[in-house]
Amino acid sequence: MSKKKVVIGMSGGVDSSVAAWMLKEQGYEVIGLFMKNWEDDDDSEFCSSRQDWIDAASVADVVGVDIEAVNFAAEYKDRVFAEFLREYQAGRTPNPDVLCNAEIKFKAFLDHAMHLGADLIATGHYARVRENAGKFELLKAVDATKDQSYFLHRLNQAQLSKTLFPLGEIPKTEVRKLAEKLALPNAAKKDSTGICFIGERPFRDFLNRYLSYKPGPMKLDDGTTVGEHVGLSFYTLGQRKGIGIGGLKTHRNADGTSEPWFVARKDIENNTLYIVQGHDHPWLLSSSLVAAQASWVAGVAPEARLMAAKTRYRQADVACGIVPSGDDRFELRFDDPQWAATPGQSAVLYDGDVCLGGGIIDSVTAV
């Protein structure tokens, strides 16, 4: 009986490197695939794809697997980056990692792997897949601090049926220990933060190159104009730093302390940014939200009931009720108001450890 062939995405990072070794240990025929997803200013200090490829190839050599590079830059620009810019131009705050997983890593990559004769694909994500009564479920990782199911919630049955997540059952600390024990050349490499095309560069400078923007008034909740914003695209709800309100008088508490300022609303129609003082200002709290572009792992929306949701990554699950409304929309109602729920971000639903799917936040209702 021939071994099952698994094509694994190898980024040059520690997680996918250890995952490749684990698959080989489990008896699979393993092929590494390095995805190049960005070409603009690829020679700059901010994008490390060349070094990442060297690291991935070096690891493949140590682990003993073949590796090839594939260029998905055109697909990435068309399917992910164009949507990313559209959302920012419309004043929302998108999450490109969610779109990248759905459109590149589990679509373009999956298609390419199948052309290579793969039976399955794998990645270094921290999540799990379980077959249950003929259906495939997406589960949180055992290591709750690294769980990435939030970013994978748009995966469907066809994609999950072909996917392995070798790291889903082990803690990140164990992954680092394995990398050191195996003497992988990238064992001490830092985890990547963000996405390659932004890297560590100043985000506003980056967006400046691609977006048209127009300054406009910055106002308080009572309508008082206190300054000028540089373009609504450059702000996100709940933002505290970099608002540009130096010298604005603040209300001081009895003990002399003052509350920080936060971005609270964007009035797209009138190109106005509203800021408020205090983390718990009512404008920053939402009792409900409506999400669009719904995507359900099981292929159908869950019935209206109580469950749990995340409205941003690294947030604890919060109790909510869901009310499906139409083919690709749903409403979430929260027992406890949610802080800075942001249009463009994902609202992801869970039943315990099972990720049910979610949608893109379209609008929120303040308390």
TrEMBL record:
Region described as Interaction with tRNA: spans on this chain: 146-148, 312-313
Region annotation (Interaction with target base in tRNA) maps to 95-97
Q: One cellular component GO annotation, for this chain's record?
A: cytoplasm
- Cross-referenced InterPro entries: MnmA-like (IPR004506), MnmA-like_C (IPR046885), MnmA-like_central (IPR046884), MnmA-like_central_sf (IPR023382), Rhodanese-like_dom (IPR001763), Rossmann-like_a/b/a_fold (IPR014729)
Keywords assigned = ATP-binding, Cytoplasm, Disulfide bond, Nucleotide-binding, RNA-binding, Transferase, tRNA processing, tRNA-binding
Enzyme superclass (EC): transferase
Domain (Rhodanese): residue spans on this chain: 6-43
Gene Ontology biological-process annotations: tRNA wobble position uridine thiolation
The subcellular localization recorded is:
Cytoplasm
Which GO-annotated molecular functions does the record name?
A: ATP binding; tRNA binding; tRNA-uridine 2-sulfurtransferase activity
SUPFAM superfamilies to which the protein is assigned, alphabetical:
Adenine nucleotide alpha hydrolases-like
Q: Which reaction does it catalyse?
A: S-sulfanyl-L-cysteinyl-[protein] + uridine(34) in tRNA + AH2 + ATP = 2-thiouridine(34) in tRNA + L-cysteinyl-[protein] + A + AMP + diphosphate + H(+)
- Please give the chief subcellular localization of this protein: cytoplasm
Which of this chain's residues are annotated to bind ATP? 9-16, 35, 124
- What domain of life? Bacteria
Looking at the UniProt record, the site noted as Interaction with tRNA sits at 125, 345
Keyword Transferase on entry: yes
* One Pfam family from the record: tRNA_Me_trans_M
Q: Where is the active site?
A: 100 (nucleophile), 196 (cysteine persulfide intermediate)
Name the Gene3D superfamilies on file.
Adenine nucleotide alpha hydrolases-like domains, HUPs, Translation factors
This entry's Enzyme Commission designation comes to: 2.8.1.13
Q: Which NCBIfam families match?
A: PRK00143.1 (NF001138), trmU (TIGR00420)
**What is this protein's function per UniProt?**
Catalyzes the 2-thiolation of uridine at the wobble position (U34) of tRNA, leading to the formation of s(2)U34.
Q: What is this protein called?
A: tRNA-specific 2-thiouridylase MnmA
Name the encoding gene, please: mnmA
